[in-house]
Structures are given as C-alpha cells and as structure tokens.
Amino acid sequence: MSAQPIGILELAIAALLLLLNAALSIAFNLGLEKKLAIAAVRMLAQLALAGLVLSFVLRQSSIPLTILVVLVMGAVAAYELMSRPAHRPEGWWAVGLGGGTLLLIGLLATLFTVGGIIRPAPWYDARYLLPILGMELGNVLTAMSLTFDALTTAAFRERRSIEARLAEGGTRFEALESVLTDALRSGTMPILNTMAVAGVVSLPGMMTGQILAGADPLQAAKYQMLILLVLAGASTLGVLAAGLGGVLLMTDPRHRLRLDRLVGSEGR
Amino acid sequence: MLKVDHLRVGALSPVSFALASGQCLAVTGASGSGKTRLLRALADLDPAEGTVMLEGAERGEMTGPEWRRLVRYVSAEPGWWAPTPRPHFPPDIEAVTPIVEALGLSRETLDRPVAELSTGERSRLGLIRAICGKPKVLLIDEPLAGLDREAVARVEALIGAELDLGRIVVLVSHQATALLRRARAELHIEAGTFRLTQLARPPASPQISWSENGTGLAGRGPR
After folding, report:
1. What does the alpha-carbon distance between residue A103 and residue A209 come to, in Å, rounded to a whole number?
2. Rounded to the nearest 5°, which phi and psi values hold at A6?
3. Lower Cβ count inside 10 Å, N or C end of chain B?
4. Residue B207: its pLDDT value, please?
5. Is A82 in contact with A100 (CB distance < 8 Å)?
6. What is the pLDDT, as a whole number, of residue B216?
7. End-to-end C-alpha distance for chain B, whole angstroms
8. CB distance from B133 to chain A under 8 Å?
9. Helix, coil or strand: residue B2
10. How many CB atoms lie within 10 A of CB B137?
11. Residue B46's closest chain A neighbor by CA?
12. Pick from A201, A59, A57: which is nearest to A130 by CA?
C-alpha cells in the first residue's frame, strides 16, 4: 500500500485557498499578495528540485554523489546560520567555524542514527541518510541561530552590567552568566516544545508521512521517537556549542567584552 | 606606584606618567576627547598597546580580572545586574552602611529598585562598590555629575580619605574643585594629544613625573 498519487490538478486545487487569500489581500489593500506569491512559488520550485534530485540520487546509489549532496546541504545550512542573526562575527573564519560546527554535529548525529541504530544495508543508503541529515541540519540550525541571536542581542542590551562585572574583577563567564543562561534556554525551547506536544497536539511530520505512506502507526511512532531523541541530543549540542563559542567570540583571553568583533550591529 | 609607559589609547598619541601611593591625577578635556577611553584602557577593559605596571608588576603578568581588582574602573553610569543595589555589595553590610551614610544616602537606598534611583544616587553607590573592593588604584569617571553642593563635598571627602589611605586616584571630572586642589598633576587631552602639567603643591612634596619619551620617574624632588 502507498499514498494516493498527486498530480498538477491536485496541487492547483490545494492552491485555491491561497488564491482566495491573495484576492482578499488585493481587495482590502493589505499588501500580502506579493509576499505570499513569491514564497509559494519559491517553495514549489525548491521542493520540485528536491524531489527530482532525490529520486536521481536514490536511483544512482553512488557514494560520491551522496557526499556531494551532503556538502551542498551543509553549505546552504551554514550560509543560513550566518545570515540570520542580527549580530554576526566578522570574517570568513567565523562563518566557517559556525557552519563547520553545524555540519559536524549534523553529520555525527546522522551517522549515529543511520549507521549505528537503523543500520540499513548498505549503511550509506541515501534513502535513509539524506532525509535524516536534512532533519538534523534543520533542527540544529534553528537551535544554534536562536542561541547565538539571543546571546548577542542580550550582550548588547546588557553591556553596561556585563562591563560592571568585569570591572570589579569578574571573569568573562561570570560576567556573561545570566546572558548565557537565557540564550541556552531560548535555543532549547523549540525542541523542548516539539517533544512536549509530540503525539498530543501535533503529529510530527515524519510520522504523518509514514502513516500516509501506509506504514503501521506504531512502527511510525517508534521511528519518530528515535528521530526525536537524536534530534534533541543534536540540538542541545548545537545550543551549547553556539552559546559557549559565542561567549568566547564576544570576549578575549584578557576577559574583555569585545562586541566590536561583531558586525551588523550598533557598534561601540 | 602606577607606572604608565607609552600607552596607546585608540588613535591618541602615546601617554606616559607615573603616580605614587596617595597621589591624584586629574584628567581633563572636552567631551569625546578620550578621557573615558584612557580610564578604560588603564583598567584593561579595552585593548591598548604599551606598558602599565603596578608596584613593579606588569599587568600582562596577571590575568585581566586580577588586574581589574587592583585597578578599579568606576563608571559615570555604573551597571547593575540585580534589581536592587544590595546584592552588588559584599555581604558584610555593616562595613558598607557607614560609607553609604557618609555620602548622604539613607541605608534604605540599598533596597530600592535601581531603576527608581537618581543618576546621582546610582553613581555614588557605584563609587562605594568600587571602594568596598579595596583596590590599589581608583579610576573614577565623573563622580560629581548631577550632585548638589552638599553631596559634592561628601564625595570629595570620601575620595580624599581614600587618598589618605594611600590609594592612587585618576579622576575625570569637570567640576572637582576641592579634589583638583589635591591633585598633583593635570593630564589634559586636546586634539588627540596629552599634555601633563604639574599643579601647585606644597614645596617639599614629591611630584608626579612624566616625560614625552617615557623616561620620567615618579617621586623625585621639586624642580
């Protein structure tokens, strides 16, 4: 058994609701129609491309091709990571460090899940590797950028009290303690929420997909548990890396606050 | 003794001076001339090239926090991380209260929300916080701004008492009248350069020495 096939006609019908919104937006001059149209068309193009690329890669089942797709996914995730926060570290080395950490955590979690737990044959089967890597990267990306954004925004806002702590002889971790604690909480919030409502309020996307594809709901639930456990571990690892790395980036070994090392901000 | 040798603060010309125990240096200059930057550089809160030594020890020999406990920067607008002033003070509040009252503040001030205190109250409490840490050097930024005449006299008396205890004070102020009389030298910043002038002093007292090339020594007799 598998899901009902979907064609152009079905997609067009699905878009009707969105078209209705666009008409309302034009009628009441809300200015939403352009943004909605661009986002929808972009989403269609991205997913169509992803579907084409994935079916090609899965048919080929070649290791170099899989590695290439992994690298492209990692590069896009690294770019997104660095383009989102309001305050960014200056220079390519920092982008590389942040993106590299993201890719490392995503790859480790994926290899751990696919190679260590699910163990398909062959273990590098792209059908398991790529979707799981995508989920890991997406979640770790959100966790890391939320943490880093919360950390730097709070450091700028609390600059005076941080410097007061430093001036009285506090170390950088003492001075940034409350800011770091808040940032770690912000970063872990999405995955904590996801776990809290999983199966009660929302059925996670992967479980829904497997059930639609005809899998046994209990089997789908077990897969979802496995994925959520690893996602929670990987996200938290990303939160810690972004938080501790962010503190080291915003300070120097003499325990000075160095917000001048961040760009795209109010500056000193 | 605090010895500063060719300290480069931002784009300002390098500055050298030496201050012995109990001496006060007044830093003057227009707004934005670099007075606060000089104090922050002395406290190692901002990176700056040059040598700064305290009692023969170069600051690079100790960690940043160790140095800043000895050379304490007192901001004109001190920062607070707790809602009320009390958690910012040492737990031995019996030692703190007399100083609080000596500055004309009631002891209840310690438990009022920081946000409700006036600028003058906050800056006085910031000064007391610094003094409680018993640093060797106090770098005080505009301690008298927003104070009435009586409070000015009290703050000046407190800083004077710290000098009597042998602390070194570097003071930025537009209005420190009585304190300026105690200052042995004035460091004026203008157009990115420092000009150090000896002020009138009792004839036999040691003077602050300085030189453009940094060969000056503190503690020699009057010229």
Report:
1. 25
2. -120, 135
3. C
4. 52
5. no
6. 41
7. 20
8. yes
9. strand
10. 21
11. A256
12. A57
With a cut of 50, which residues of chain A have pLDDT below it? 265-268
Is residue B96 within 8 A of residue B90, CB to CB? The reply is yes
Neighbours of A29 (CB within 10 A): 8
Q: Which of chain A's residues have a Cβ under 8 Å away from the Cβ of B78? A: 160, 164
Q: Do A167 and B66 touch (CB under 8 A)?
A: no
Closest residue, chain B, to A254 (C-alpha) = B64
Reference B50, options B19, B1, B8; nearest CA is: B8
At B209, is the pLDDT very low, low, confident or very high (cuts 50, 70, 90)?
Answer: low
B49 closest CA partner among B98, B13, B100, B97: B13
**3-class state of residue A250 by DSSP:** helix
B80 contacts A255? CB cut-off 8 A? no
Alpha-carbon gap, residue A66 to B169, rounded angstroms = 67
pTM for this model (two decimals): 0.83
Token readout for B89 is 């003070």
pLDDT at B220 over 60: no
Kindly state whether B119 is in contact with chain A, defined as any CB-CB distance less than 8 angstroms. no
- Measure the CA–CA gap between A130 and A119, rounded to whole angstroms: 14
Q: Is B75 on the interface with A (CB under 8 A)?
A: yes
Q: How far apart are CA A49 and CA B116, in angstroms?
A: 59
Residue B53: strand pairing partners: B3, B58
In this prediction, residues B28-40 reach a mean pLDDT of 91
Q: Is the alpha carbon torsion for B116, B120, B123, B124 positive or negative?
A: negative
